[in-house]
Structures are given as C-alpha cells and as structure tokens.
Amino acid sequence: MSQESFMQFLVAMRDEPARLAIYDGRNLSQLLFHAKSEGFDFSPEDVADVVGMIEANVILEKDHDPFDGTSRLWREMWGRRHLGYLVDSCVRRYSDQELRALIPSAGSGAA
User: Fold this and answer.
1) By CB count within 10 A, which of 4, 37, 48, 82 is most buried?
2) 3-state secondary structure at position 100
3) Structurally, how many domains does the chain consist of?
C-alpha cells in the first residue's frame, strides 16, 4: 500500500471528472474497495497522510495563510463531499510534478 498510489488515484480523479463524480459519493471503505479493483493500492493511513500533506501545503505555500480556522481552504470544504473538495480545491492547483514532490519517496527521483 502506498501514498504514491493514492496520489495517482487523485490525479486520475482530477483528470476524469465523470470518474470523480462516481467516487465522490462513496464512503472511505467503498472508495478503498473500488479503487483496489481498479489497480490502486492504498490504506486509510495513506489517504490521511496524503490529504494532510496536500492541505497543509495549499494553506501554507499556495495561499500563504495561517494554518488555522481562518485559512481560505477550510471555508472551501464546508458543505462539500470531501473527495470532490480535495480534488477541486487542492489537487487541481498542482502540476503532476508538484504532486509527486509532496510524497517524500516519490519526489526524490521518480519522473
């Protein structure tokens, strides 16, 4: 299981809006099951770690906001399903190379 696989999953969701629409309504257990059947292999811990890295990076590096309840990103998630918010408000703001660089093992030599 890997953070890299979850990042690949997020890129696939970013690049295929119809696929994102299908996954966005699923809970975490359903998401893990269906993603695995499509060849992705990540755990709930991988999801939490990657989401935390992406959100923190958006707040601190992209938006230059304080890491607290006043950040613009937190307001963007209100009333939205989490996967859709994550892809639309965070992942879309990155190039593939920037996303790979967020994953420590992927950013140090993977092309």
Assistant:
1) 4
2) helix
3) 1
CB 78 within 8 A of CB 71: no
To 5 degrees, how large is the angle CA 44–CA 105–CA 12?
55
Could you identify the residue written with the tokens 């307001």? 75
Name the pTM for this structure: 0.86
**Which residues span the domain enclosing 37?**
3-106
pLDDT digits (tens, 9 = 90+) for 80-97: 788 999 999 999 999 999
Contact assessment for residue 73 and residue 64, using Cβ atoms and an 8 Å cutoff: no
Which residue, chain included where needed, has tokens 């990076």? 57
The pLDDT tens digits for 29-40 are: 999 999 999 999
